[in-house]
Amino acid sequence: MMTTEQKEKLRGWFTGRLPDDLFEELVEVTPDREEITVIGRIPEPRFAEDVSDAERDAAVHARVQEFRERTREARMEVAREAEHRFRRKVSWGVVCGTERALFTHVAAPVMTRLRQPERQVLDTLIAGGVARSRSDALAWCVRLVQRHTDDWLTELRESLEHVQRVRAQGPDGEETGDSPDDTREREDDRDGDGETG
């Protein structure tokens, strides 16, 4: 997990590296172990005052698709540099008006062992039509926990950052942490050209 300072440096790198005309504004840069998601604001289409919701939705969707195709090469170039530097895949998204669209991004498998009562919870979600598979059901559970424990998760992340800062002050501080500039080889498989969508 990155510290606040490491996240700020990461955002600063993207702020400095992205072409000035790519986004109106860099909305967020969100890292985890596998991926960095970069989201920027793009201009909303101009509408007549009496435009219908259907027309508005279609125009926004078309604007997002146009941006995605037009900027693909520029985004791929930035992604290649970032992936080499930070050892994570880069995914992209945009905010257009009130709509938020993520382009194809990493769906990392997470292996887990569940006992029967836990499997029964997942199977109940499948039987109820909430999920298509156990992996869908597990992802649904994670989203539910995230929605209802956001404050608690924020506090936990802040505590972990404090632990990392204290660890970094210890005698082995240089060897621990999850620095965005860390160039150590990682065991996960990397391929592609940075444009995942």
**Going across the major beta sheet, what is the strand order?**
1-2-3-4
Number of strands: 4
Assembly state here?
A: single chain
**Main β-sheet, in a few words?**
4 strands, mixed
Order of helices and strands: HEEHHEEHHH
Structural class comes to alpha+beta
Unreliable spans: 175-193
- Amount of beta strand: 5-15%
Mean pLDDT: 84
State the separation between the terminal residues, measured CA to CA.
26 Å
Q: What is Rg? A: 20 Å
What general form does the structure show? Answer: globular
Count of DSSP-assigned helices:
6
The level of helicity is 40-55%
Chain-wise SSE layout:
Blueprint: H1 4-17, E1 25-31, E2 35-42, H2 53-70, H3 72-86, E3 89-96, E4 99-102, H4 116-127, H5 134-148, H6 150-168
Parallel strand pairs: 2-3
Antiparallel strand pairs: 1-2, 3-4
Description:
The protein has a 4-stranded mixed beta sheet. Residues 175-193 have low confidence and may be disordered. It has 197 residues and is of the alpha+beta class. The chain has 6 helices and 4 strands; from the N terminus they run αββααββααα. A hairpin with a 3-residue loop joins strand 1 (25-31) and strand 2 (35-42). The longest helix has 19 residues, at 150-168.
